[in-house]
C-alpha cells in the first residue's frame, strides 16, 4: 500500500512539474548548467534525461563517433555527447526543443559539434546512420495534447523506434535508451527479437527504477 501511494504521489508531482514550464529555467547536471525554455521537457528535474546523459563516457560514446540525440528536449544528451568528442545531430518534434538545444550548444561553445533539426523520430535523418543513438522515449501510451506533451505520451513512438532503429545504426553501432518502471512501454523492448538489449546502468529511486539499456542489432 505504501509503495502504491508513493508511486501515485510521484506521478502527481511529475505531472505538476511538467506543467510548471511557463518560465525559463536553468538546471545543473553533474556541474553542467542547462537552460530549459518554456514548453520544453526538463530531463534534469525529472531525472531520466540526466541519468542517460551521465551514462555517457569514453566507452559508451567514444570520441569521434557520429551520434544522434532523438527527442533531444533541452539538448542535455547532445551536450554531454559532444563533450565526449562526438559529432551530434539533435532532433525533436517540438521546434522549441530544437531551439533550446541550439541555445545550449551555443552556451557551451559546442555549436561546431551539435546540429539541431525538427521532425518526428527518424524523419529528419532519413537515410543516415550513426554509431550511437540516444533516446529518452515518452513512457506512457496515449495521444499527446500538444507539442510539449509528445515528451510524455505517444500511441506508437517507442514501437516505431524499435522497428526503424536497425536502418539507422552503423555496423557495430548501438542505441542507449533510458526506461522507467513507472512507464508502460518496456514490454515492447523484450519482444523486439531483431534487437539485443542489456542493462548497463541502473538506479533505484524508491518510487521508480531507472535503467539505461544498450541496444544492438541481433546477429
How many E strands?
11
Q: List the domain count as a whole number.
A: 1
Largest sheet: 7 strands, mixed
Full CATH superfamily name: Vaccinia Virus protein VP39
Derived structural class: alpha/beta
What's the mean pLDDT score? 90
Broad CATH class: Alpha Beta
Q: Which topology does CATH recognise?
A: Rossmann fold
Spans of at least 5 consecutive residues with low confidence: 5-10
Shape: globular
Question: Approximately how much helix is present in the residues?
Answer: 25-40%
Corresponding CATH architecture: 3-Layer(aba) Sandwich
Please specify the SSE layout and strand pairing.
Elements: H1 2-19, E1 25-29, E2 32-36, H2 48-54, E3 66-70, H3 76-83, E4 87-92, H4 95-107, E5 114-118, E6 130-135, E7 140-141, E8 153-154, H5 157-164, E9 169-180, H6 186-190, E10 195-204, E11 209-217
Parallel strand pairs: 3-4, 3-6, 4-5, 6-9, 7-8
Antiparallel strand pairs: 1-2, 9-11, 10-11
Helix pairs in contact: 2-3
Amino acid at each position: 500500500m505504501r509503495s502504491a501511494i508513493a508511486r501515485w504521489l510521484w506521478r502527481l508531482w511529475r505531472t505538476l512539474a511538467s506543467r510548471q514550464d511557463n518560465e525559463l529555467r536553468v538546471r545543473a547536471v553533474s556541474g553542467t548548467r542547462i537552460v530549459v525554455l518554456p514548453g520544453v521537457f526538463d530531463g534534469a528535474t525529472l531525472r531520466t534525461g540526466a541519468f542517460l546523459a551521465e551514462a555517457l563516457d569514453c566507452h559508451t560514446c567514444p570520441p569521434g563517433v557520429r551520434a544522434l540525440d532523438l527527442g533531444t528536449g533541452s539538448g542535455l544528451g547532445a551536450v554531454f555527447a559532444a563533450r565526449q568528442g562526438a559529432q551530434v545531430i539533435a532532433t525533436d518534434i517540438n521546434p522549441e526543443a530544437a531551439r533550446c538545444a541550439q541555445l545550449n550548444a551555443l552556451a557551451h561553445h559546442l555549436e561546431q559539434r551539435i546540429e539541431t533539426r525538427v521532425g518526428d523520430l527518424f524523419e529528419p535523418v532519413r537515410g543516415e546512420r550513426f554509431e550511437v543513438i540516444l533516446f529518452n522515449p515518452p513512457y506512457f501510451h496515449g495521444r499527446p495534447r500538444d507539442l510539449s506533451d509528445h515528451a510524455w505520451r505517444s500511441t506508437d513512438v517507442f514501437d516505431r523506434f524499435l522497428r526503424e532503429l536497425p536502418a539507422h545504426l552503423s555496423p557495430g553501432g548501438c542505441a542507449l535508451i533510458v526506461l522507467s518502471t513507472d512507464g508502460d512501454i518496456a514490454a515492447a523492448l523484450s519482444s523486439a527479437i531483431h534487437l539485443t538489449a542489456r542493462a548497463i546502468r541502473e538506479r533505484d529511486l524508491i518510487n521508480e527504477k531507472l535503467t539505461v539499456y544498450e541496444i544492438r542489432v541481433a546477429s
